[in-house]
Amino acid sequence: MTTRSFGKPVRRTEDLRLITGQGSFTDDAGSDALSLVMVRSPYANARVVSIDVSEAEQLDGVTAVLTYEDLPDRLAEPLPLLIPHPSLSEPRTQHILAKDYVRYVGQAVVAIFAADRYIGEDAAERVIIEYESKVAVVGIDGALGTNLVHHDVPKNVAADHSEHVGDVASALAEAPHVLELDFEMERSLGSALEGRASHATWDRHSRKLQIQNATQTPTSVRFAVANILEIPDEQVEVFAIDVGGGFGTKVIHPWPEDILTAWGAMNYERAVKFTEDRVEHFISSSHERSQRHHVKVGFNAEGQILGLDVDFVHDNGAYTPYGMIAPLITATQLPGPYKLPNYRVRFRSVYTNTVQVTPYRGAARPHAVFTMERTMDRIASFLGIDRSEVRQRNFIQPDEFPYDLGMIFQDGRPAIYDSGDYPEMLNKALSMIEWDSFAERRSQAPPGKRRGIGVACYVEGTGLGPYEGGHVRVETGGKIQVSTGLASSGQGHHTVFAQIVADELGVPFEDVEVVTGDTRRFKYAVGTFASRAAVTSGNAVAEAARLVKKKAIALAADALEANPEDLEIVDGQVQVKGTPVRAIPLSQVAVLANPLRYSFSEAAKAATQFAGTASFDEPPIKPGEDPGLEATGWYSPVRATFASGTHAVEVEVDLITSEVEILRYCVVHDCGRIINPLIVEGQIHGGVAQGIAGALYEKLAYDEDGNLQNASFMDFLMPYCTEIPKIEIDHLETPSPLNPLGIKGAGEAGVIPVSAVIASAIEDAEGFEINHMPLFPSELHSMRLASGRQPA
Amino acid sequence: MCMNAEVSHEIVLNVNGEVKRFSAPARRLLSDALRGDLGLTGTHVGCEHGVCGCCTVLIDNQPVRSCLTFAIAAQDRKIRTVEGLAGADGELHPVQAAFKECHALQCGFCTPGFLMTATALLEQRPNPDEEEITEALAGNLCRCTGYQNIRSAIGHAIELMQSDI
Amino acid sequence: MKPAPFGYHRATSVEDAANLLSELDDAKILAGGQSLIPLMNFRLSTPAHLIDISNLPELNEIRVDDRSVTIGAAVTHTTLLKTSQVASELPLLVDAEKLIAHEVIRNRGTVCGSLAHADPAGEMTAVIRVLNGAVRTSSVEGERVIQAVDLFEGPLQSSLTETEIIVEAIFPKLGRNSASSFREVARRHGDYAVAGAVSVVDYDNARSIESARTAFLSVGPVPILISFDELLVDAKTSDLGHDEIYEFVSSQLNPQNDIHASADYRRHLAAELAWESLKACV
């Protein structure tokens, strides 16, 4: 019997290349390529008065220096608005090179094609640009003020959107208790260690653009390039190979540089590459995380929420290429695991003269969870009830699934929770952190320290559609080739999808090879984000494997003169159940599947022994059939599947330095059935680390002129190993009824409740309210002084 | 890389035991020389200001930021990169094997820097304590793993190396 | 971020380095480069020439005698950290070294390079200040000795002339009746300190305090030295009071707000760290 690998901590097939320095990251390609170097605006809001490129052009090693005026017509339009929405009344996207105006520090103004990046930067220094700078609109206060980012967008409002369930106004009016609360989270970014990168070559003989791009969505980069350059899709291929972290930033937007490298390769008939440096990643990629919430919550004496009204402002930066997806996710994920019969949410997505905002791991769920979980804690505090107890009293119960929230989710479909067990999830977490006995540990805090404990729960919509596809092919040499269109940036897809196919098809795991994110192998895909890859591509390759298995069995049945129902595939052999002696290897079935005259190998020759039962009245390939032992499968979910989890943390605050030390960090996590526990836990580790980073260390600091003051790793503080504690994980599995594998997504879970749970614990330690994250020691110090709660 | 009007130096580097020669200006960073001039793309570039550690290589067996070193200043030194860790027959260095066994990498971008740092640590101190391991790893950023499995991998590498003795 | 072009010159001796520094327009000394090269990569520093002194054996020496520890310009932080004679005869240097950046930076960066860089957040600038050390420099005009109190003029601004190169740094040793302690708070392990205090207390044979002083990092444009003599002279160690020290220090420091910390918080930290480091000298 084949050993099943689903559920096993199989070691990754990706690793051998990566640990021997044989990875293929985008910048690794083409040391002979022309380098695209951008000149970027130093002003947050300015009119471009004049550009003089004459000195730059003359530099040795410079091929061309382009301004907006030099762009061909098809590149002169604003970049596309990828996700329109009826509420997004004032969308704006940037031009490939700034046309007349710049709206953020970092916006691309001039493109230089040079022999290498060194020379390109020399040329960039010689470009003389005159700007007429205007007042910059920075931060939510700025956006709500009188100055405008775009002169034709009133009040800087890109979108004003509301959703509601039930009757909140009445619920609040009748509630025994009502609290009004304000919360805020500040701006950050994904900050993968590999920045954005693209490498394009144009082969004029085959008329093909080949683009390696550090992207989470190669198929969409392909369509964007083909559409904008006005060339047939078939002339463009995009592949990702190795990507050094994505975290949402590398989902297509698309970037000006994606288009310029492709166009440059065609125009100059040279390979062209763009590799952004760290400063550019800070000032010209994507940011996220800045929202301000106002909450009105009505509840009864037991702490059950009767009505919740949330009005929030979302800072979307200077442009909205990705529409209003981020705040929409906040709005629809806010209810979390709780029953909210009366819920109203309204948000305004507003412009500021800062980098555009697009989803970053968690995709604006952290804000939703922060608001909901802080609100729960406040209810508990108001009523004097234990924080975990309040949550239990509001949970959707295990027997209430499927649970319809009554709202439309980010995928345009109803938000209906499919499965989960929130009470059990919370109990497990409380037990892990030893919640009930905390009072004693609190009293044991050494002099000069205060201890606190916190808990936070979340629900995450994952496995979004509209679809993914998978292709499985059995080679005549015996290898199983699998491909799917979405890309990989560390999630272990090659391993996980191989596990799935190996189990479905009945072949050894070692014989399965997987390629992801390569349009030359698979052309239709959505992409890797929203914790969807395992669910969608996983189910798609499973479906493809099932189809291949069915075909293999049919062919083998013919060859072995057996009944298909009596056949099984074990270790790559199609055999009669009970008499494995009667078997045919899949590799030979693959030969039989392709009725070619030529045998290219000994194995192919051997297969001819099985040919012969075909009827002479029928063609070798019947109508509706395909040659070859391969199949394409699709998975198109009817709607998202909802993962969930609870985090619990114990902290110790130093009363002199106000530094926060995490004593224990516990995670209980439900992503349905687990394909590879090693990989799922790795995703949680990484997510929690980013969450801790976002709670205690990372904040993008814009000054009032729209300059980013910490556009480097020296001042944007990403945690080292010394700042991240041990992360303890326990699992719960409530399988998803929505897909055959029963799986839910796991990629973002780790980061979603972290700010909420750490705020909860610090508040518990200090005894004053924490409404704002991230929280640095300096601020905590000021807050303690202001609260009057000085140390004894 | 292309010739330009700048003065070009003949630079000789000893990398992974081999002598390599190429022409480059004085300002060519060692990171770029390794990747571009010598085609050794295993060493990665994450920040170019010495904070992230992706570019870490060994110079005379000590970890060093190749983004903060000029290639021309690294002549007469013994440079080791990730490409030189495995044996000639492809046998993985214990640190490499440990990283794979412990799932200590996800996207792999920071990994060469960690591997070189860990190799230097274990060459200097075959049996480091927790504090020494932490101190050695403390200068490398990872955005994917949350460091949990990287720590385990060092522990496992120590076991592998001790069982080899 | 790639540096601008520059001419590269490998000095064959100190004299050669001084000559080159004098002859070449807009030249800088390259030792470990760990402070200079990041600035060059950002193009915040664009010297036309670099004079590499890292290979000169005469600059790679550490001398320990009765009075001081003298560190050559090419000596790296790691070399200093691993020199056992320094650990036993002036342990404050080793304590400070452990707080400097990360090992990988210490492997290339030099002690004298840190001093020339004159970063008020640098540990070595505070140490040389509290020990009342000096640097010996060389130029075509000759040699001179610059006392620590005269070495730092502003943030990243030393008093070195354009043609002058630090040859060695001199750190006076502490007497048998002296104690020292370094305390700092950083946001992440290895970061520049948000605030730091390095204290030295000298006792007489009866364990009365003869003198006490603390140098602060990250709270001013240069390392700031505060003397506690007027408060503490002739006092017994048991007389030290937290609140008095705290007020005394707070009233003399005027740090700035920045994105990492408010001025108030820095001042508070500095005062607390002064107290802790003085207490540790007791």
Characteristics:
heterotrimer, B: 165 residues, alpha+beta, Ubiquitin-like (UB roll), DNA polymerase, domain 1, 2 domains, five-stranded mixed β-sheet, globular, C: 282 residues, Uridine Diphospho-n-acetylenolpyruvylglucosamine Reductase, domain 2, Uridine Diphospho-n-acetylenolpyruvylglucosamine Reductase, domain 3, Enolase-like, domain 1, 3 domains, five-stranded antiparallel β-sheet, four-stranded antiparallel β-sheet, 12 helices
Characterize the structure shown.
The complex is a heterotrimer of chains A (792), B (165) and C (282). With 792 residues, chain A is α+β, with helices and mostly antiparallel strands. In chain A, strand 9 and strand 10 (208-213) form a beta hairpin. Helix content of chain A is 27%, strand content 25%. Chain A is built from 20 helices and 29 strands. In chain A, the strands form seven sheets. In chain A, strands 3-5-1-12-9-10-11 form a seven-stranded mixed beta sheet, sandwiched between helices. A six-stranded mixed beta sheet of chain A has the order 7-15-14-13-8-29, with helices on both faces. With 165 residues, chain B is of the alpha+beta class. Chain B is 33% helix and 15% strand. Chain B has helices at 30-37, 94-101, 111-124, 130-137, 148-164; strands at residues 9-15, 18-24, 56-59, 62-65, 78-80. A five-stranded mixed beta sheet of chain B has the order 2-1-5-3-4, sandwiched between helices. The N and C termini of chain B lie far apart (44 Å). The mean pLDDT of chain B is 95. Chain C has three domains: 7-52, 2-Layer Sandwich (Uridine Diphospho-n-acetylenolpyruvylglucosamine Reductase, domain 2), CATH 3.30.43.10; 57-172, Uridine Diphospho-n-acetylenolpyruvylglucosamine Reductase, domain 3 (2-Layer Sandwich), CATH 3.30.465; 178-279, Enolase-like, domain 1, CATH 3.30.390. Chain C is 31% helix and 28% strand. In chain C, the strands form four sheets. Chain C has a five-stranded antiparallel beta sheet. In chain C, strands 11-12-13-14 form a four-stranded antiparallel beta sheet, with helices on both faces. The termini of chain C are far apart. The model of chain C has no long low-confidence stretch (mean pLDDT 95). The chains are: A alpha+beta (792), B alpha+beta (165), C alpha+beta (282).
